[in-house]
Amino acid sequence: MQPRNTIRVASVPSGHVYIRHLDPVPGATAGQAEKLPKVVRLPDPDPDSPDNPATGKWWPPVMLHADWIDANAASFDVFHIHFGFDALDPQDLQDAVTALRRHGKPLIYTVHDLRNPHHNSPEAHNAHLDVLIPGADALITLTAGAAAEIERRWGRTPHVIPHPHVVELDTMEQYVRRAAQTPPGQEFRVGVHVKSLRASMEPLPVIQALLDVARQDGGMVVQVNGHKDVLESGGARYDAGLAHFLTAQAAAGELVLHVHDFLPDDDLWEYLAGLDLSVLPYRFGTHSGWLEACRDLGTAVAAPDCGYYAGQGPVFGYHHDEAGLDPESLKAAVRAARLAGPPEPLPTLARAEQRTVIAAQHAEIYATLLDRSGVLQ
C-alpha cells in the first residue's frame, strides 16, 4: 500500500519544545523516514480566540474539548495528547475521547507523567490516566521503567521512544566547543533550582545535605536559584521558611543565592552550563525535561530514585521519595559526581540523528493507525 504524502496531527499542545523536536532535523534522513508520510501538526488554537492560531500561548488547550473536535474533525487525521489536561474534569476528557471515536480519528497519548508534579496527591491525575490510557489507540512513553508500570497498572504496552534534545542543536554545539576549550575550574559547583515550587519538590532537606557535603569536603559551591514568586514576600507561592533559610545561609557565605523571574532560554542554558552538577530535588515524579537540557549542555545530574529519571540517561542517583530524603545517599551521589569529573558532552550529531529516528517512529505509529483504520491509502 502506498501511503499518502502528509499526515495532519492535532497535537495537544503543538508549540511546546518537546513536540517541536519530534519533527526531523530539516534536511536530515534516517532510512525508513524517507518512506514515511510527512507529519504536519496543527498550530495551537488561541485559548482567547479558538478560531485563530495561538501566538506562543497554548494553555489551556482548546483542542481537548469535544465541541472543538466536532467542529474541526475534517482538519486533522490523528489526535495526539501530550499534556495540558490538568484542569479538565475526567468526564470532559472522556467526552473528547468519545468525540474522536465518533469521527473515526485515532488517539495517541504520550505518557509523560504517571504522577502529576503539580498535585500533592495522585487521585486527580489517576482519574485522567484512567480515561486516556485505556482510551488511546496507541501509547508512547519515554522509558522502559514507565512502560513497565503502565503495563502493570493498565495491561497495555506502550511504545518506548526517548526524549529528544531540549537545547537547540546549534546552541548545543556552541557549548560543546566552549567546554572543550575551557580548563576545569578549581571549585565544584552544585546547583538546586527551586523555581516556582511544584508539589513534587522538597528542596530544603536536599540543600541542607549539600551544605553538609560542602562543609565536610571543601572546594564546593552550593548555588540555589529560585523565582521571585517563591522567595520574595508577596509572591504568589511565597515560602517564608525556605526564603528565610536561604537568605540567612547566603548572608553567612554558605551558599550562593540567585532570585529572579523566569529565565529566557539563553540565560537558562548559560546558568545550567555553569554548574558541574544539577540536583533534582523531587520527592515524586516520572520524567524530566530539565535532565535532558543538562545532558545537552554537558552538566551532570543527581536524580532521585522515585521516578524513572535514570532511565532517560546517566545520572548520579540518590534516595528521595514521599517518605523523605536519605541524606547520606545524596552526599554519596555528589561525591561520586565530583570524583567522576565532567560528563562527556553528548555529540550534537548523535542528538540530531536520534531526533530524526524519533520523528520516524512517530510517523510510523501514525501511519500504522491510519492504515489499520482504512484511512491511509
TrEMBL record:
<protein>
    <submittedName>
        <fullName>Glycosyltransferase</fullName>
    </submittedName>
</protein>
<feature type="compositionally biased region" description="Basic and acidic residues">
    <location>
        <begin position="35"/>
        <end position="44"/>
    </location>
</feature>
<feature type="region of interest" description="Disordered">
    <location>
        <begin position="35"/>
        <end position="55"/>
    </location>
</feature>
